[in-house]
Amino acid sequence: MHRYGAVLLGGTKIACAVGEGARIETVETFPTGDPTDAFGRITAFFTKAGADIRGVGVGSFGPVDLASGTIAKTPKPGWSDAPVGPELSARLGVPVVVDTDVNVEGLGEFAFGAAQGLSTFIYLTVGTGIGGGGISNGQLMHGLVHPEMGHIRVVRDPSKDSFAGACPFHGDCLEGLASGPAMQVRWGVSAKELPPDHPAWELETDYIAQALAAYTLVLSPQRIIVGGGVALTDPAVRFFERMRHRVQAVLAGYIQHNTIVQGIDQFIVPPSLEQPGLIGGFELARRTLER
Questions:
Q1: Which end of the chain has fewer surrounding CB within 10 Å, N or C?
Q2: Do residue 126 and residue 254 come from a single domain?
Q3: Rounded Cα distance, 289 and 275, in Å
């Protein structure tokens, strides 16, 4: 079996790994920092690992220019136009392919986790930001650009929610209303500090459910996997239970498929892998090199 490298480039931390398939041999995590620091630490990890790898798959915060492997315009200081793919390939001497973090995490679940055997599914993460990707007809979701599922509009009732949203581009888009930072701004504490009976959770699951219903109507996925720190919160919040019920309410019986009507617990699920992004990175590199 060939070995591959994986890098999960997040807004606050970076994880690097070496392995193959679903097996992670070695992993290291460190703060993201600026591009110069990040490239240096990533290079040092693979040099120290002494790994004979065929290539590296990178899952990055977005937006990403998929053709060039660079970060596009981003509010994260110093990272706009950062040449992630070209720089790491030059440093490591192997092919490096870059995609969005959510697409790569979804790819990991597709190959070895909760999306095995499916042809079309969505992977959504609700955390520092909200992003979505996945597989359509067996292929990663690419088109004009990569999906930007966190920036769709959802219905906000001003009589129930006066918060104008935290997205610097759209205000009260999904990410502007339901991401971790949006919850922090709105309630004055982080999501993990909110008690299970706090009204925040009713709003949160409603906004996410509106989006999931829209994705279902447009893309007709066989499953929706929802991850991220906000979604995978204290079980007492009953996040998935609330969200599933609300999705059924928003769809209002329009889709009469047994998966929605009776099997919603298996339609909207959490990730099954502990490290889907790193495993997805191995798979991204493998698929790209074996084309």
A1: C
A2: yes
A3: 22
Contact 187, 194 (CB under 8 A): yes
Amino acid at site 18 = V
Q: For residue 235, what is the DSSP state?
A: G
In 67-144, alpha helices (H): 84-92, 101-112
pLDDT at 221 > cutoff 80: yes
d(CA 228, CA 220): 22
Handedness of CA 104, 22, 84, 86 (dihedral sign): negative
The Cβ of residue 146 has, within 10 Å, a number of other Cβ atoms equal to: 22
Residue pLDDT, tens place only, 90-127: 999 999 999 999 999 999 999 999 999 999 999 999 99
CATH of the domain at 77: 3.30.420.40
Residue with tokens 């889907």: 276
Q: Is the pLDDT of residue 50 over 90?
A: no
Q: Return the closest-CA partner of residue 270 out of 236, 247, 243.
A: 243
- Local structure of residue 80 (DSSP, 8 states): T
Structural domain includes residue 166: yes
* Residue 62 pLDDT exceeds 90: no
Domains contained in the chain, number: 2
Question: Does residue 234 carry a pLDDT above 90?
Answer: no
The Cα diameter of the chain in Å comes to 59
- Amino acid letter for position 65: D
Residue 281 CA, distance from chain mean position: 13
- Return the pLDDT at 236: 86
**pLDDT tens per residue across span 134-182:** 999 999 999 888 999 999 999 998 988 999 999 988 999 999 999 999 9
Q: Is the dihedral of CA 240, 241, 246, 247 positive or negative?
A: positive
